[in-house]
Each structure stands twice: as structure tokens, then as C-alpha cells.
Amino acid sequence: MIIDVLTCFPEMINPVISESMVKRAQEKGLVTIRVHDLREFSADKHRKTDDYPFGGGDGMVMTPQPLYDGIRTLLQQAPDGVRSRVLFPTPDGVVFKQEQAEELSHEEHLIFVCGHYKGIDQRIRELLITDEISIGDYVLTGGEISSIVIMDAIIRLIPGVLSEINSALSDSFSDPLLDCPWYTRPEVFEGEKVPDVLLSGHHANIDAWRKEERINKTKERRPDMWKAYQDKGDDKNG
Ligand code: ADE
User: Fold this and answer.
1) Which of 103, 133, 141, 153 is least crowded, fewest Cβ atoms below 10 Å from its Cβ?
2) What is the CATH number of the domain that holds 52?
3) Pocket flag, ligand 1, residue 146 (CB < 6 Å)
């Protein structure tokens, strides 16, 4: 997968992609991430990328020209026959879910467009953006952090990225219940003991305990997910 990130703040992205799982995915050749400075595409002599909104109002709007030229350049650089998705993280987008992360993990080319200030000129959204994505009901200062969140969720699902193949599949949200608690050594920490059942070696009991924990947590924290789970009859399917 090739991921292009178009941003006015490349230094917000670079340190994150040089660490941990995203770094290893690149080293394994499973993903190539290229970060591009939007200012480089600006035809303005001061490399400006924003301007005042027509009709008035506080804040600035990102101008169409650098975005148009930047996105089109990246689209043209995509290998022949490859479909590109142009993602715009924005608080008024469709809320990002695990399902969409899975769908996007099968794509060959993603372009992230990081907005700032009031957002980007609407014509760019209409002409070039394929997916407007929100990472939740709160407002961040720009699209860089949201792009990193979305990228991380996608990259870890690319086959071969995680060494523990089953671990991504058993995450909360890959299925309809939240995850159960997990413990490791030591057996007692600050006076708190690991639940006996986990030390029993009795796998059926351990599975039953985990399922019950997952159900209780889901009921308490996510009534919406619990309802969907019951409606699907998943509790009867084990
Ligand atoms: N940019 C600013 N806030 C955002 C949010 N909640 N989701 C995605 N992109 C954003």
C-alpha cells in the first residue's frame, strides 16, 4: 500500500511514522508512506495556503489551488491501474469505525489531506475528496492527528504487519463485544491478585469467564453495541 500525506505540518507526521508498528510495516515493504509539504504546491509567492472566507466569519479557509495541484500530482504519480482514495479527516465527516479501517486496508493507494483552520475550500471536497472521515465528536486543531489515527488503524490490518495474526482479529470492535481484561506476571501486584480462573488451566472456564467479562463491560459501557449484539442473536452463537 502507498500512503501519501499532504500537510502544512510534515513534522507532525514524520516522528510518528518512524516508530513502532508503522515503522516495521514500512521496513517489511508492506506500506510506503510519503509525507508532502502542501506549501511546496502553492503558487503564491509567500507559499500561502489559506485565505479569508467569502461572506465573512472568523478563521481562515485553505485555498483550493495548492490542494488541487498537490492532490492531482499525487494521483498522477500513482502506478497505472491503481485506484486511489482521497481521504479528508474532518469533524463533519462520517464517523470512522473498524469496518471502514478493514475496508481501507485492502486499498493500494491512499491520500490523506490534512486540513486546518476552518477547513478547506468546498470545491476541493466536491472535486477530489472521495471520503470525509471524522474520528469522533470533538474538534482537533487540524487533520494531522486524525490522519495518524486513521493510518494506524488501517496499517495494522494489512496482512503480515502484526506478527500476532490473531490479535487484530480478537480486538474490541472486530466483533460485536468489547474486549475482556488481560493480565500478565506477576500473579500479585500491589496486593491485587489475578483472577483464579486464569491460573486454573481450565480452558473452557477461562473462555466462559472472558465471555462474561466482555458481555458485562459491553452492557455497561456501550448499550448501543449490546443492543446490536442481542438483535443479531450473537449471544446464542457463542
Ligand atoms: N479534524 C479536526 N477535528 C477532527 C475530527 N474530530 N475528526 C477528524 N478530523 C478532524
Assistant:
1) 141
2) 3.40.1280.10
3) yes
Per residue in 131-177, pLDDT (tens digit) is 999 999 999 999 999 999 999 999 999 999 998 655 666 566 767 99
Question: Which SS3 state, helix, strand or coil, does residue 226 take?
Answer: helix
Looking at the structure, tell me whether residues 15 and 104 fall in a common domain: yes
Confirm whether 52 is domain-assigned: yes
Same domain, 27 and 134: yes
Which atom in ligand 1 lies closest to the alpha carbon of residue 135? 7
Protein residue with its CA nearest to atom 4 in ligand 1: 91
User: Relative to the CA of 143, which ligand 1 atom is closest?
Assistant: 1
- Ligand 1 pocket, 90 CB below 6 A? yes
State the CB neighbour count (10 A cutoff) for residue 202.
12
CA proximity to 225, closest of 116, 99, 76: 99
Domain housing 222: 175-231
143 CB within 6 A, ligand 1:
yes
The one-letter amino acid at 36: H
Among protein residues, the one whose CA lies closest to atom 10 of ligand 1: 90
Do 198 and 143 sit in the same domain of this protein? no
Q: Does residue 94 have its Cβ closer than 6 Å to ligand 1?
A: no
Q: pLDDT-derived band of residue 117, with 50, 70 and 90 as boundaries?
A: confident
Closest Cα to residue 111, out of 142, 161, 157, 77? 77
